[in-house]
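Structure ticket #2291
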Amino acid sequence: MKKLSFLILIALFFTAFGCKKSDEIYSFYRVSHPQNFVTNQGAELYAYAADDSMLIRADYFLKVLGQVSTYGNTIIDYGHCWHPTNPNPTIGVDTLRTNSKTGDNIDDVTAVFPKEDSISFTSVITRLNADTKYYIRSYVITGDAEGNPIDTGYNPVVTEVFTKDAIDEWFPIDGEIGVERPGGFRFDALGFNFGDTVIFGTGNQGSGNLTNSMWMYDPVTRLWNGDFRSLPTIEYYPGSTGAALVDGIGFGVEFADVNAPVGQKNRCIYVGLGDYVGDDLFEHKSNTILQYDFTKGNNIWTPVEPFIGSRRSGAVCFAIGTRAYIGTGKGQFPLSDWYVFYPEYARDGNGSTPAWRSMGTNVPGGPSAIARTGAIAFTVNGRGYFGLGRDASDNFLNDFWEFRPNNVDPTKGTWTKKADFPGAPRQNAVAFAVGNQGYVGTGDNIIGDMEGSYTGDTFDDFYRYDPFNNKWYKMRDYTSNKNERLNISKKVTRAVGFSSTADNVGYIGFGIVPDSSFWAQEDLWMYRPFESGAK
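Resolution: structure written out below.
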């Protein structure tokens, strides 16, 4: 307390003589700023706390934006703490806390935050109840040069937030072709979001009528562009060519070219693998990957260095940072192998560094990994999630895995077994991520030819996965919209699912209803899990 009093006296001294401008960050006026972080003992830290604000407010989690400026103390950790009844939450046994630099609800001390710096950070606050009031405020932990903690300070402004009730509803997406949504019956299509942009296309329109059409959703105009360039004809096998594609993969990556100027990045999407005839024969499958470079704006799909795994359809993929991970699927038989794609090396012009690298035995389950096809995958908070599918013995699966990347060597990332998918084991489900949560549903456990004799069923159930708590929650069944369909659900498989990060919504559509006279579908539905905003 003596030190604090001394600093306040200095602040008053400079106030009287006007030797410093009040807007200078290093002025002693800042010592007594009302938004300085304050310790439990009332001492002020040399760090300024901006008011916290809500980025997303849902029924089960919050995204909170904080900002800290330091001008004297070394900050070794920062984040938010919160509580449903304590109006002045602090770090303690009975108070929840999130570490903003890792996204985890843990109490470890991480890398040093430099002196005389400013940073904005986002905390994802989970384990919440709907329609409940919470008290939230940011904190900082100071330390010495070795990173040992010395003191803890709290934002003097406490933010009060009510979580919202879940919306959990499906809404139909109608409209003319090229105006509000893609058109045409199809199944085994592909769809994925790349930032705020959504890419959709390809698929089987029924009776072996494959399509190479591609669509792009613009979150600014909220329109689908049906003029987005269709896939070109490629050589999928020596002596054979094709353009239409079914059961392929797609992903987007932002990266810098080798030797590119600092700050110059490319935004590219990739589509490939899959079946170019639609008969599921090995000789009609591909290992080709096509690149579309938004940065160049030349409206051209260009083949990149071929996928080094065997030709396949029914594979899955997810992108994390500047890398993409592709695995499983079916060639002649179901597969268990995984590969990492380095996009900058696929276009360095000299081929000196391979663009594809095998992950070897570093796959879900290790050396005893289950070969499978028809699985699901998505990305949440810089981690990949994978599971479900059908193995080589026609067993349907419900296991579920998390992948944490290794930034030094992406092939050395860590796979961890998580809580099993709670629905019936299945293949050909869909998955997408919205607001740091994963959503999985639909699919089938059918054995046999869907166009003829088969056993099994299709599914309409739909679930949310919370990666922070490793829990699954049952949500409203697919298309069970109380306003539009009178709570009539729809069982479908081989549909397509994707999300729009700009709108915090997901989509499921198209697919197959085997027991229907019109078994290829053309409807598209939007799923809104929660209301976003900072109100």
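Closing remark: The radius of gyration is 26 Å.
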